[in-house]
Amino acid sequence: MDFDTSILNLDAKVIFFPVRHHSPACARFVRELATKIRPAAILIEGPADFNDQISELNLPHQLPIAVYSYAHFSDNTRLAAFYPYCVYSPEWQALQIAKELDIPAEFIDLPWSKMATTKTAHHRYSDRELRQSQYVSQLCETLGIEGLDHLWDHLFEIDPALTLETYLDRAHQFCFHCRALDEPTLEDQQREAFMTEKIRQAIARYGGQILVVTGGFHSYALHTQLLNPPTEPQASLVFSYLEQCLKPAIVQQGIALTPFSYDRLDSLTGYDAGMPNPGFYHQVWQHRYQSSAQEDTYTHNAIYREVFAQIVTALRSHQQLISAADLIAVESAAHALAALRGHAEIWRQDIIDAIVTSLIKEEVIITHPLLRAVHEVFRGSERGKLAAGISVPPLVQEIKQQLKQHNLEPQPIGRIVQLNLLEEPACSKLLHQLRILQIAGFNRTGGIDLAARQDLSIQWEEWSIAWSPAYEGSCIEAAIYGSTLLEAAEMRLLELAKQCEQQSESAALLLLDACLMGVQTLIPPLYQQLLTLIQSDSDFFAVTSTLTHLLYLYSYDELLGIAEHAEIGYLLQVTFTRSLWLLESLGQVRDQDQQLLNAVKTLLGTLQRCDRTLNLNRAAFIAVLTRTSQEQTQNPVLRGATIGALWVLDEAPTEQVLTDLSAISNHLGDFLTGLFSIAREMIQRSPELLNQIDQIIAQFDDEAFLEALPSLRLAFTYFTPREQHMLSQTLTQFWTKPSAPILEISPEQIAQIKAREARLLSTIAQYGLRGIRE
């Protein structure tokens, strides 16, 4: 197929302007073209379902911002997409020039909800088609250029003298060949059919020329379909229609503006990525196009000088000093590299390579301070802020209303809020709902924490509340989960529950979150899921961790408002029984001593707290501990812990502990680690055991003692310094101390010694010797 040059005709009824999203050159030329031809309307690649709100984009926002589209399907799938706009985005400049020329602007792309799948790119202004193109790969190889980003810079961005006509010819040809070597996806065909119909409607509605601003990959296809409409439906589109009919129905959808940031834009990778380094291209726009439009002048290499000055400032802020000689070396290298590559100006990669070659003497790694400073400047720090007057999802309105009602609104100056859980349960539940929705600016910093099991003796929580730049955006983006706060929190929990495929501990934490948020309706389904996971989980450590969470859920049921849920107790019984079975079939475990000790502590604590109320199988617990403690090949730490648990429960006499201690002298330190961890208080009340330990250690030769010393040190760390002192005092009772000799000296001898001492001190004072005190 040959290239049709009629697409370059600027007198045509419809003029197609091909863009690469977030390209400063494209943004400049779309303004120039619109000013030149003054079209009747500008049609832009963007979500058509936002047209009712498109006037909101004319408000005085602080860029970058994004159109956020989201959908909830009947199979409980939730998908969302962003259409981000920077000041140098061609779509944004098309909107601005339309406003300046007082002409209508419309979005013409297929709404996100109509094409949303898990495989669809969630960044709608990405370069997926160009990055996958065979033509781009071949052209890069021919020109000796690495990748699409450098190729695009080389062809379209670097030369400030590039004209509109040259750009249109080059961009259309470039995108035509990308399209020729690659089959368009079904999604592309759907979108192009929709956009073509929108263009036809605009032709019928407006009298003059129509300017169509779309990704370059689509421009030629739209031009062809407009000139030569298909006589019959394409088979692929018929299939697509049938596929749409079979898709889950949309339960809820929405679209709104949300703040964005250069950091977020630069973090996109793979086929979701667009133009990289937004901070650099922001400087390009400011110095090359914005300043030249205002002053009608442009200084050669002004971009490089400004960017390099920012890099030096960033380096110095990180205590990385750079000398004048270094600056001269970098500038010389940058000029040489730009000339070698045929660049009209020093560009992005020239700066990076010049710094690497001139300043970095060691291995080049991405975390090098110099490169981090460069990437920090190239990324940029711009963060968007929405203007007043935009429409927001109902969830955002409810969040703000609830925060105002409870006097918890975030302020620029942060504050610490302490909540009494018995007096202010509603505030606690609200903040936990915001936490699970990841609303920025709300962090729990202290008080009772049932998940981490900290400060369990108190009944208050401490929260840090402060306004964050991400606060408004996180509220808007949480709207994908529902229109009310309670509904959104429920749906977010259910989404997280889906991810707990074989993780009983994670499911237990979600059950705890449901209780903290007051989402009572979710307790039964989460309970059933957790029960299934526990019964199938074969990881002893995961199941005992789950048991820990359930134990505290059960113990603090009144505080959490779930005292009427008897199923928590049943879950505890099932988990306890499952843990015993897994303990006995555990086998030898190495390098997980602390996890073993925590597990035995949990089992012991569960029995001690719940034996009477839940009628736990105490006999089975004792039997498992007994068999484990007597297993000769088992980890000495576990053997010590299990015999310690039996001792605490008064199921093993002190004599048995002494016998086991003597039998395992080769691994004394490890055994004592387990024993002391579980039975610390029992040890302090058993001087016989201390004496036995002392006798075993006394029999060690030097080599055996040095080998056992590290584990012995670890074992005794379970006692506080005061307790260690008391143990040593107890131990001295068993030592035979020789009586001290009686010093026999007469009073006369004492008098002589004192007289001699007095003369000595007098002589010292006479000669003025210092440092000697009487």
TrEMBL record:
InterPro entries: DUF5682, LolB. Pfam families: DUF5682. This is DUF5682 family protein. It comes from Leptolyngbya boryana CZ1. The lineage of its organism: Bacteria, Bacillati, Cyanobacteriota, Cyanophyceae, Leptolyngbyales.
